[in-house]
Description:
Helices cover about 35% and strands about 20% of the residues. With about 525 residues, it is α/β, with parallel strands linked by helices. The model is unreliable at about 1-10 and about 505-524 (pLDDT under 50).
Amino acid sequence: MIRNKALAGENSIVIIGAGMGGLSAAVLLAAHGLPVTIVERMAHPGGKLRTVDVGGYAIDAGPTVFTHRPVFERLFADAGARLDDHLTLVQSDRLARHAWADGSTLDLWADHARSRDAVAQFAGPAEAEGWTRFQAEAARIFRALETRFMESPAMGPLGLTLKYAPFHLHEMFAINPFATLWGALGNYFRDPRLRQLYGRYATYTGADPFQATATLMLIAHLEARGVWLVDGGMHEVARQMAALATRLGAKFHYNAHVSEILVRNGRAAGVKLASGEEIPAGDVLSNSDISAIADGRFGPAASRAVTGVKPHERSLSALVTLMTAEASGFEMDRHNVFFSTDYAAEFRQIFGERRLPVEPSIYICAQDRGITPPPPGLERFQLIVNAPPTGDGQPPTDEEMAQCQTATLAILARCGLNLKPHGMHPVGPKMFEALFPSSGGALYGRASHGWQASFRRPGSKTKLPGLWVASGSAHPGAGVPMAALSGRLASAAILKARASTRTFLPMATAGGMSTPKATAETMG
């Protein structure tokens, strides 16, 4: 039972879920002296940042790439802490290793000149020149959107236009929202392998490169700015953020399921647990998938507060195989991609036919490589194959998933990699739906298909006063740093609303730390 009467009353905040958005908001709100309690139905913080035991080996089962480090440096700094005091981050010289069935390979590097030289050697000087232009365009799109859109409250097309008017409209048009990513890549690359490589960046947000907006080119620039390896695995990021929030006074309650968002006098007023216990609060922040609210999983009164994502609008799911294995024949790095021979067919089968691809592209995170040399013998691997978000409809059967795993190992063998599995733990769309209800197994919320998709992600504020949202399915979008930014935006919105109604007075944080002013400006 959760018994903390001090949290009762209008000054307290209840956060549903300890995913990245919830943890980010918890840190920032607790740093402002607010009483915060986080209710998480799992036994640990992190949401998708989780580990799974496979034969006695803990394997990261969620996101594997740490980018956009300044987001987390700022988060810790706003809480009076230093990121480097909590996490050991090692910048990777090599961004990723890419391989094709014809035996060709291409490594991309943190060093820009080294990557350009690698592309020239791989595909010729003309492609290297196209690569240089592509990187410049990706950087331009990122700079155009970083502060005006990604770090700002959600807005519509008109609002974004006003952000650029009247002297910077040319920057807005530089984001290229009306072209598809695949089509835009043809302006830079003739080599189909390079189009395939950079088309893959659409999948970072769960999108089909043939339908995704060309704006997603910005992801290439974000990754080129740096990829870090986290000592202890990606789940360590969540553990350290939870520890920081706890130090600031936030209370975490695990294995606690929220069955209802309480609504009184037309306003969110706390949560009710499956146990029947009620936790009153002045504000409720949901870190669940947006569709979980819309589907009524937190009660009918809250369901009208947001609009859910329709099944045909969902992003990719995945067939994730967590594995201990012996590897031989292909020298892997931490991040590795093995491409199919027919990319268009792969995504047509996933999004059009709603089934696992016959010949998938495969991402492998070799989790024992990068920081230290890999140990002899067994290693830990996470293999990811894109899958349709049909976890609540007609998900892949066990037989279909087994067939896909067999095809996966065969494709890897054609690329020169032989894996001899010792332990395997598959997770498909049906399991992802069970872990993250109402998502259908989609891992990134709404797919970024078409120029309007980003504007259709909900902002922090919902139609129900006192109910706020922060997650990868909300603005500014999917991915670990974007979800953290979503939590920042939600915390800023809550503080701004409280300041405007004079219901909140800044307090000292736990441990006697002085607090910044509770304004939207200080929170981002």
